Amino acid sequence: AKVRRTKEQAYGTYTDWMKIRSEIIQRDGGKCRVCGCTENLQVDHIRPVARGGQTTKSNLWTLCARHHAMRPGHKNAKHLIMHGVKS
């Protein structure tokens, strides 16, 4: 079942999110955990926020844009893959 929370309840403030984002990228060695790419990095929730996932270090990992788009339920996945976002 989907969990409805405001953006700030799910991610914290912008400052909080940017801090934890940089910590996760640093923890993961500045590369995608799937392919090792070092470009277009994004931080992704392993268990999605919509399914009750928390914004905690244990529930976050670094992915390149391509692998993030390939995750199930990603809203932009089809668009990003079709337009050749490179990993």
Task: Give structural notes.
The chain is an alpha+beta fold. The protein has four helices and two strands; from the N terminus they run H-H-E-E-H-H. It has a two-stranded antiparallel sheet with strand order 1-2. About 7% of the residues have low confidence.
Number of strands: 2
Helix-strand pattern, N to C? HHEEHH
Q: What structural class results from the helix and strand content?
A: alpha+beta
Question: Averaging pLDDT over every residue, what do you get?
Answer: 83
Roughly how much helix do the residues carry, as a percent range? 25-40%
Poorly predicted regions are 78-83
Biggest sheet: strands side by side, in what order?
A: 1-2
Please tally the helical runs, counting DSSP H or I stretches of 4 or more residues. Answer: 4
What proportion of the residues form beta strands (DSSP E)? 5-15%
Sheet with most strands = 2 strands, antiparallel
Outline, from the CA principal axes?
Answer: globular
Radius of gyration: 13 Å
Features:
87 residues, alpha+beta, two-stranded antiparallel sheet, 4 helices
Would you summarize the structure shown here?
With 87 residues, this protein is of the alpha+beta class.
Helices and strands in order, then pairings?
Elements: H1 7-11, H2 14-27, E1 41-45, E2 60-64, H3 65-69, H4 77-82
Antiparallel strand pairs: 1-2
